[in-house]
Records
---
Amino acid sequence: MTDKKSVSSSAVGIVAMACCFPEKILPISEICLQEGIDPDFILENELDIGQVRVFEGEWRSDPAVAAAKECLSRAGLKPTDIDVIVDFSVLPQDYVVPAWSMSNKIQYDIGAEHAFNIGFGGGGVTNLLAAFKFVSALIKADDGVRTALLIASDVSIPRNRVINPDQPMTILGDGASALIVSDSADVLEILETEISSDSSRHDVFNIPGGGLAHPDRIDLYRVKIDPLKYSVSSSFDALKQLSRKAADLAGISLDEVNHFIGPNISGKDQSRFAELFHLSDADPFGKNRRQYGHVQATDLVINLSDFLEMQAGRKREFGLVCSHGWGHSSGAMLIK
Amino acid sequence: MDIGILAEAYYLPPSKKKVQDILDAENIPFGTFAKNVDFRRDIGIEEVHVTDEMPSEVAVKTAKNVISKSGISGSEIDLIIDFTSLPQDYIGPTWSAAGLVQEAIGADRAFCTALTVGGCASYHFAMRSALALMRSDEKINTVLLVAGDRTPDLNKTYYPITVASDGGGALILKKGCDRAVILGIETISIGRLHDVWYVPGLGRKKPDEEASETLIHMYCNMKKFNEGVIIRNFFMFRKVINKLLSRIGMTMDDIDYFVYPTFSTWDQKYFCEALNIPREKVSTEGLRHRGHVQESDMVINYARAVEDGAIKKGDIVMVVSNGAGFAWSAVVVRH
């Protein structure tokens, strides 16, 4: 590092993206059988997820290594070109975080020997938007950073794919993703990233067991979403406010944004998302949700990749990448 | 515009435990392990702070202390970064204490997140990330960095390094602040050493193993520690320090005081010898009655040095650390 004499005004953007999904497919019927859930219950709750990918290896970080290598290849970069590696994973990792971090392992596994390694947690899917915000800042204001590798790997806790079995809210799939962000991107420029936190909902999305509060409660070592703390209206209201703010800061109106990219939580969640932003195509990335389930922030990467494909050959348009973070940590990133 | 440390503060639980009792309870071996060093005899830590509070409670008390000391209100804070390095109340990266801290201090405008990397060097990684955001975003003017750690009852000894104390450290970074102005910061990561220290967690529980608190104990891969960390530790310190000094146009002679973690007597001795630093220029006083408070060592040792008059206005201070994962890091401030 570190401190640049003046803050760079170069555009920061996404150079390449890659996702890695395990080969094994688990249909919802099989998940319901394993977890003792009536499949009709999934239908009733409008999840609209048909299957998920399942990782069966020992190290949860392995899919992220594959995604990182593929991403570097797509970007035409060497591992030694990477200045910082940022982990935006959400679920438990190879070992307990923050005492251990996947970004260090990735640095070693891909040979990014010039990089320093960081990661951001506690924000659910919004971890990715936090990572974008910090990485954009590092590229603009830190002399040691021009190129960043963002990575995540999320593998479900065994038999904990249907979240809140009494009132299913989503079904978790396994997968990993990687993105390279730099000041020499000419495809996806990051214009603004706005994030906010509602502290009263800090544990809305949580794993109660396995930490110091309940170290030996394996029965509590499960992702749960607290239905009493998750408020649909306030979560989506906060998201709308942030989206407007990001657009304002970029000097455009929200009406000028052509594409809205959110996570693949459920059909019901997507309907609310479509209603919020008055989407003409209510479910543009529905096929990703149906075949992969909810893979935390990797949802945004796979959807963003599809968005890029859809844009091929068309004039530059605005897109908004959003996450309500179950009302605790919300974010909106405007891209061009 | 300058960015300075408006205030730093800490919280150390009032209860203490004798280190010899801890070593006995944790079956720490007798005898020398290297260069005639006997961990039990030479560690130099007599007692450490202990608590039954959750790490988040430690972090909240620490944050309240720094808010009180700085004279600002919680609503002035734009960003909160939790840089705790040990396991928290709930599992990371799914959860962090940052939200609880935000609520407790009324930082209703802030965005909160957790820095999930760096071990004891998370202090520097959090600071480096915060500085970049403050420099590039005109809306981010005041940042709270906070950490709170509590070790499990029978896992206070990090053999062969140190004995851990419970406690927390926090600081407030502010634009336009002329106190402890940050002149430069540097970090180096060596990912090959990612699993020298690790906490297995319930996710690594074997099918026939009972779920117990030992799964959130810190473990050391001794072979990797000896072959990977020990042989390059002071080389890496020199590297990160020289890189930073060279960039900010200073030399070791310009540094009036060094804030360094309180690990052990032999570590402090080797640090001073390897880098040719007079002992009186290094923060060592906390070792005997406090031990090692993880990433908060840097905050506590800085604060204590200011209180004791070891750091005076205008002094050039280097805060330096290493951290599991592995990382070496340094920041230079003009107090």
---
Amino acid sequence: METAFTSPADVTSALARTGYLADEALSTITFLASRLSRPVLLEGEPGTGKTALAEALAEALDLRLIRLQCYEGIDATQALYDWDFPRQILHLRAVEAVTHEAGADGDARALEQELFDERFLLARPVLEALRAAPCVLLVDEIDRADDEFEAFLLEVLSTWQVTIPELGTISAATPPLVVLTSNRTRELHDALKRRCLYHWIDHPGLARELEIVRSRLPEVPEALAEQVVTAVQRLRASGELIKPPGVAETLDWARALEAVGATRLDTEVAAATLGAALKYREDSERVRGALDKLLTA
Amino acid sequence: MTPAPGTPTEATEQPAEAPPEAWLLGFARALRSAGLSVTADRERTFLVATAAVGVGQRSGVYWAGRATLTSVPADFPVYDEVFERWFGTEEVRRGSHVDVVRPPVRQAPLGGEAEGQDASAGDTIEARASATEVLRHRDLATLSAAERAAAARLFDALDPRSPRRRARRHVRSRSGAVDGPATLREQLRRMGEPGRIRYRRRGVRARRVVLLIDVSGSMSPYADSLLRLAHAYVRRCDHVEVFTMGTRLTHVTRALRERDPDRALAAAGRVVPDWSGGTRLGDSIGAFLDRWGRRGMARGAVVVVFSDGWERDGPEVLGEQMRRLAGLAHRVVWSNPHRGKAGYEPVQQGIVAALPYVDHFVAGHSLAAFEELIEVVARA
């Protein structure tokens, strides 16, 4: 499992088998990431398949996917490791009880060694990924975390190792495949960007999106899929919406329509199921007002 | 042997003659001279990446270069242009350009109101302190060039502070909630013997501050001072973002990171395309919310709008966008230079539409007013 991919085209076909349709750019970058052991930094609008790439990669390579969801205030104990204090205490009590009964006196040093043992270590996603490598590590929405966390992550991503004072250094035999995603709520630090391969994912064009719907939802009738994708593409192009629907919304909408048993998209079903594609009141009001235009034009 | 940037003919005709590394490095250098931040380690990664995809692969080289040498969508157009010059216009299916607010760079006049050389500025020599005191309360729009320079130095004395918010992380404290892990750790040290109980409480962190500065024609006498204030914020506080609003919205935080105020202002001047133009206040705030605000920048932040409320379009748009802004932000502060003047009534349609969604409506015409504003923001 050294380098699983032999060429960008190989990436495309491997991902396609899992239902993820990557274009040439994304395949090339994914190929480079696995070849050069560099993390991929994906930016783009929400719903363009940034997270899905990591999932598809894991499936395609048959590797474990380890996910680290970032949030404001996340720190090393949530990303790296923590000691399981309650279990350590329990262990201590147990040892105490045993030595008391046996009448032997405990060796404090040895006991302490025992306490900071691998089995009391709670491995959080990053450490887990280093130990489980080869695997796919998804660091989702890195822009939500703070700057300090970014710096910490940079260190791990460049050395592929982590030092635990009580245990020593743990390093990955083969670096995990790392995918970072960002919604660009803030600029990431340049140092982190330099470390990564950068790619901006766009919304797919009509033909590609249709292909995605077909491959993901084969049960949706062809004509319906085409109508849904056309409508979504128009919504995106209009540029009036607060939150234009992403691919995930397209799939949701197609699924919803299929669930209510629609075979084609008319104003009535569209109005009833619009909530699957649009998540803001202002947006759905605006679109509802001009539904017939959206569907016929 | 490296072809100079801008002379692509040699490279396109005879790429095989020069060693590929030199030729690729030349491309990276050309990108650097075109303004991308191409560092030596990036060059190296680029070479390794192109080797991995194969140098003969035109589109492979294109994507490998784009992944390793660019870092924001705004870099893409520049990248494409240089790529075309360097490798010729032969067929490459390139990525679409992302529509990012990157206005054409243009030099804008900055603080250049070298108006009526005030001879009187030099000849009345009063006690320095009181002159400073007077300057602090003067309307910044009416200063002469000399006074403006003196006032610029006073901006150093401003002390912007971030508002605070409760952090997720806890800090050790003498009272508050029991800190389980710390207490247990303490016990561990005693071999499990119960001991002192540790407490913790939530820490505090700097809350984000977003400054939206109107640089349209009616605000132009204040634009220079407002950017100086913004520069002070960017330099002194963490988590500050600055935008200018005119006919379009421009993100100027990066430009203002420069340590020296005058250079920072010049840098901001270069990225802002619409000095002293019209105002589309509502649309600008809307653009801010769509592109940055809703995704997180405005959430829980203190947002300060510097504007006189003159709106070219109708007030409905502004009212609607202010409603959205108020829904996301922790506090909305509106600073209006005219507020500090005698007899001012908030009657401009824009202001009337916006006021219901504003938490603090303050002045913003003098240094003293800025000090008050700083206080309001710090306590928000």
---
Amino acid sequence: MFSLALFDVVNATEARVNAPEEPVIWFLQTFVTLFIIMNVVMVIMAYQTWAERKVMALAQQRFGPMRTGPIGLLQPIADAVKLLNKEYIVPRDADKTLFFFAPIIAFIPALAAFAVIPWGDATGEGLFGGWIRPIIANLNMGILYLLALSSIGVYGIVMSGYTSGNKYATLGSIRSSAQVVSYELTMGLGLMGTLIMAGSLNLNDVVIAQQNTMWYIIPQFFGFIVYAISGIAETNRNPFDLPEAESELVAGYHLEYGAMHFGMVYLGEYINMNVIAATVATLYLGGWAAPASFLEFIPGPIWLFLKFAFFLFIYYWIRVTLPRFRYDQLMGFCWKVLFPIALANVAITAVFKYLGITFGWWG
Amino acid sequence: MIKEIAQGLGLTLRHFFKKNVTLQYPKEMRNFHPRFRGAVGMVRDQETGKERCVGCGLCAAVCPSNCLTVVPGTDDVGLRNAKIYLYDMGRCVFCGMCVEVCPELALVMTHEFELSVYDRSQLILDAGAMLRLSDREKERTGESIEEPGFPAVTDAPSTFLKHNQLDPRIQRGKFQSHQPALGTLPYGYPMKYEEYLKKIREGKPLVQGTLPPNFQEIQNKYLPEDSRVPMPKFVENQADTAAEVRIKHMTVGDINKVESHKYYDEDGQGSKKRVELGKGEWADKK
Amino acid sequence: MQNVMNPVGGDNFQEKGDKRMRLSLGPHHPSTHGVLQVIVDLEGETVVRCDPVPGYLHRGTEKLAENKYYTQIIPLTDRLDYLSPFNNNLSYTMAVEKLVGIEVPERAQWIRLILSELQRIASHLIWFGTHVMDIGAITPFLWAARDRETIMDIFEMCSGARLTLSYTRIGGLMSDVPPGFNEKVHEFTELFHKALKDYNKVVSKNPIFMSRTQGVGVITAEQAIQYGLTGPSLRGSGVEWDLRKHEPYMYYDQLDFEIPLGSTGDSYDRYLVRMEEMEQSNRIIQQALAKLPSKGPVKADDPKIVLPPKELSMSRAEEMQRHFYQVIHGFPAPVGECYFGLEGPKGELGFYIISDGSPRPYRLKIRAPSYVNLQALPLMTEGRMIADVITCIGTIDIVLGEVDR
């Protein structure tokens, strides 16, 4: 299945990208773009942990990290150094190979998902004659690629829990598989309305379509809500953090991990958050496009960053406020509340699109 | 449903803009209330500069966790004191009962609370270390502790007091036990401490006439060889052996054992070269 | 891979082919409130058997007490329910006072009453924070800790310690409260009234919290009485029983307050009962502050039991002798038995003393409410999901120092 899908993706890439006249230079250019974007994403991710701790601390009237650097700015580096220096421990009852690879499987797809997020107008040439492009791979079916990768990420979580040889971790991974599979459905359905409106699976096209009309958060408000909530559940964050429920399963699926393997599970989770936030920004908040024409002097990447930073803040904000669902309530919420809303949203949007009805004030 | 969640979110949002209530602890320190019960310190007598303790052992009797060991004795000038005073801070529960019962106001609950050390033997303090604890209080507040604070007296003061601020009935010098044991006996009236010291330095006998053997024995120590009053042998021995026997059963031996642990023996010859770990100020430096 | 479900082997499953998994929650687990071990048998996520195993924090307090003078036992009681040490001190002290028949001065009683209610609020605040944190909301815990800090400051101001107070003495208090006490307590009551509104806003009406607690851990009134529950756990089931009202001690009969009662006996009712109790305690403190005499002794005038004040013992030889005698020999209590229980934050906290006429108790039995309330855990959890076990541990408000003693 996946290999076929990926084969299609490769085909689509070749079809979409401006036909490379000199393949070697094209490859080098992609590599440079890749290098820069991945590094930016990693840095954002590292400071996201810092930002989350700071936001939580503020809500709780305390300081958060303060000892490393000014206002704790070096904390992510200190964390990384600490994790790298720790001993890698494999539990006696673990399946050693899978135990080793599980965090990597969780981590890599999350990072790879950033390949299709446009940081600027992807149809343009980019900076320095194409050496730095605003997108790594301008796929025709970018959204499917995203959904596929987020499905692969679940395998990492399930494997890490199941191979640890720990009952808490097993329970966590069982919860996780059920939860992520259910919420993936609502997540996909939530997106559907946007795609119907934009008429394309390409993320850049969606942004341009929004620029022509308006941010899809307004016409697709329910789709946005469904997608955002499913996204929180998909990344196992509060109030849907059952797989790692601290007070019940101690740490859930990554209970037995230490050292950089724990770091990778952790990073995978945060990058997943980033992916969800970036897709929300792209699909509903206008992506790299400026909200108004007089603000266009600010470059696209900064707009994208601001938008998804805002969404991340909402993530943290929800985390400090809300308690956690119980397992049955979580599934009930997905299937009894979100799923009907998403279906209705898709149906209504499709009907309106088919009939060619526009809502007047948004064209 | 949505309304209540929104209310909660709004409340957390409002807290983003409130003042932080925590402190950056090692950099900032909170203000302790004067009554704070930290490690037990000893009060210095202003006249002698030594501890006020007379070794009565009430503190050891009342201590619920048996962390105090007191062996009474006399010091080199003949004042009653604790020959051995050991305070095992590792056992202490900081209840303040020793301070409450001390009949000499010789103990005080200091504000010392950072009590971690690298070696448990460093938690066993003697009288000198306990004096230093209360001296640290002096450095911190800029004023000397002359009389203890909470909970030594009934209407426990809210801060450490100078002795002239206290009830005149419990000010120093109004009661006998602070006076030199030798000077008080024959005259029935306390001798001034300076005179007492002067007499001792000059080597003159403080008291004329016959003394009880134990006082005579103490006085002999400070007299020149020729003018000593001959003592029956057994008195001296009895006192010494009794003390030795008790010392053997004390924790002192254990301290030495810990100090000569091989971790500290760098040259392997058993020389007690102590590695100073952290703040070694309370280390037993006998 | 076949090891995964049964890593330890053998005993993990009742029988071969049984689909149950035996999970040991604790003693090292973030939400067992100390070192409680709960062995649960799971079928999927459903609990089929729940077996609390206390005893990891057993320190033999009752036996230790047999070798100490009555006064020396006070610091031991601090360590029972370490979230409400003053109530422990108070209950023990009042039991001894009942045994020896000593009258405590009025001012001391009022101060005890105020501090006892403050301690109830402090204990409930910690319960609130941890209970809500177990359910998943992290912020209210920090807010509760912030407000509890003010109470701790008041205790530090009075007794010098924040947690292990040892503030009571047989026949009164260790010493009078310092100047500024009334103002600080009054300030706290006003501040707390506002804070309580915040808690209610962020937690009490939260739909997720309500769905997590409503209908979870139901104890009916009959069951609650059968199990011997006391305190908010009993009143949450709708049984009106509060020692402050029904067997008033100190001056509770002079104060105007209400006993909140639940109706269904689920976790949410117990939650509401405790939240309302905090409000009522706040009311009690305000009334008691108004009635607190501004001057007066805080120790009883009983030369056999209470140590002489330093002013006397240091200026009169006979008082000094008495001081020495009392410290070294303690005071003999009359031969007999005596029980005193007060309404602690967790329930009825009682001390049962058997005296053989010596200065040490012949036997000291502690009726610890947490221990009794813990019995109801299997009743509440069996047949429910594993997340409800955590809710139920939170809702009975146990402190392991008291359970294991």
---
Amino acid sequence: MGVNLLGRGGLDDFAAGHDQHFITDVFHYGQIVGNKKISQPKFFLQIQLEHPVGYFLTLCYHQTFLPIHPPTIMKFDAFNRRDATWAKVGSLVGNGPFVLTKYILGDVVEVKKNPLYWNAAHVRLNGIRFFPTVDINAEERMFRNGLLHVTYTLPSLKTQAYRDSKSPYLRIIPVYGHYFYTLNVLKPPLDDPRIRQALNLAIDRQSLVDNVIRGGQKPLYALTPPSAQYQPRAQIKEDVAKAKSLLAEAGHPNGEGLPPIELLYNTSELHRATAEALQQMWHTNLGLNIQLANVAVPAWLDRRRVGDYQIVRAGWYGDFLDPSTFYELFKSNSDFYHTGWKNPKYDAAVIAAANELDPAKRMEDFQQAEAVLMDDVPLIPLYEYTTILLARPEVHGYYSNLLDMHPYNDMYLEPVETK
Amino acid sequence: MPRLFRHALFRLLEIIPVLWAVATLTFFLVRGVPGGPFDREHSQTPEAAQANMSYYGLDKPLFDQYIQYLNNLLHGDLGPSYQHPGWTVNELLAQKVPISAELGLWASLVAIVVGIGVGVLAAVRPRTWSDYVPMSIAMIGICLPTFVLGPILILVFGLKLEWVNVTGWYTASDRLLPSLVLGLFYALYIARLTRGSMLEVRTQDFVRTAYAKGNSSSRVIVIHVLRNALAPVIAYLAPTVAGLITGSFVVESIFQIPGIGRLFVESALAHEYPLLIALTVIFAAVLLICNWVADVIVATLNPKVRLD
């Protein structure tokens, strides 16, 4: 089967342009020069990069790099149309290990093994059924009832019980993503960097993950979660006394004279618990009056976009294994977090990193960017995400990895002998 | 019964302007909610955003959109789904309405049979054990919301006894727990309503007359008392049945049932304008029709109503 990657033009109107930022980044690094037929029956895809991109292979895991077959899709006149009839059962043509056989919205998505897959001999699952569950408690009950092999997640309230009982089903996977709050630096009183610093320093992140989140997450003291290649040097040193003196320096000893500050989050059990914990910490440590506001996702995004907030809940999962996946988000021209924060020094460091050939120097550029960020505090990092799920012991080949990607072609079921 | 027929027809015709009003109100109200249907955490280019808006005609003046919508509605076209590209609202409803309707009918059956049964049982010998026990259970049941009762029943019958699956809508036994959970709350309310109404009717003169004529006790209770006591129950049943067959978000979520209750909440959160309006209109239509049926039944049971 011929394989074709999409050029930029097609992607612009494709998929509602949601991954636009990502594509721009990718093609900034290089462009596809063509798919040459080198020797029968194999095809090779050649991509010429403008400069070395050490993490290029992890970039290719991203869904925007999945190959598709344009003529098949064009049969449905579908590239720039949203009604993706080409994606329905019977019309969808892919080159993966499985074929879509059933799709009932809100009920089940079923795939069966693809006998034409190039490596079909090594695919050991006959098929997979995905159940879209709205109620995560129902999902956990389905697992206990033996209806599921693997769950997508686990309610945070139940994680502790599974950990306490040392359940063989529980899997906690560290992932390359983080949970944070962003601050609107254009709105008083958070336009004062000393007050932002004070908020950042007066938090007990360890206590937050141990007592509130309770899912094996690690507290995070920098914008970027550490990885094998990169550990940010600038680390937040939590210090309530220093936070108090910063607040006093800003003219508000013990929070005097400060109006209530609003913390906005999208409605969810965990976001509420986190917000309440932070509200309590800031009140006890700094005497601040924090008001919580929770709204549904569209309103949350809308208010964030127009800057109608003071503190807002945010989170990000890395698209690929490189710190730039986080640092790009806070550049002045970024359309992501709308903190109103701009710093040419930060931009310069991130752009320098993008153009740097030497991997070690690149990481130094990121260190500089991190230092600027930690001085100005347009955001408050809280913890590194984990994926928490239940899997039956007979499920093999479900490996944990930072990008939280679990290809099904390597998974198989094998009964485990009970002793 | 020409008079009853005229009464029924007139009430039926009233439904049409009400539905139009509901569709119109919903059409404008949903657009007033902050946020749009294509907002995501990832930003999109203005061109891509514009392409989406113009694909669905959302860039046209609101009034033009409204006229277009009404025109499509008259032709039975409820529009596309924004969240699920490639699916039309008609397709989604065709998949999900029968499921919610079936669940709702089973639940209504539970509500009516258990409700009236228990109510009659309690009213036959008031202030005895056969009254106190069922009524106390009913009181507890009414206080238990479905999101508490559901998981408790699942825990016992699904996870401990393993008689039924904890979720799904595939086999006959899958119907059992959801119908029970959904119907029971209303059953217990109906039981209290039936009991109260029957106790009131029992004391009336015509009941004493019926006994004096030598009717058997069961005949008096069923023909004379129950028939006259049912009016408030039927009035209550109309909106209840409408609510039950148009889906329950909680029960459908707890039991993983792909019905319209879940669709309703999801479409509201996702700003799925066409789906949201369609579901609101359907709910209104079912409610109005149920009320109409109740009207006709009450009129049949009680000739006095027809004269109003």
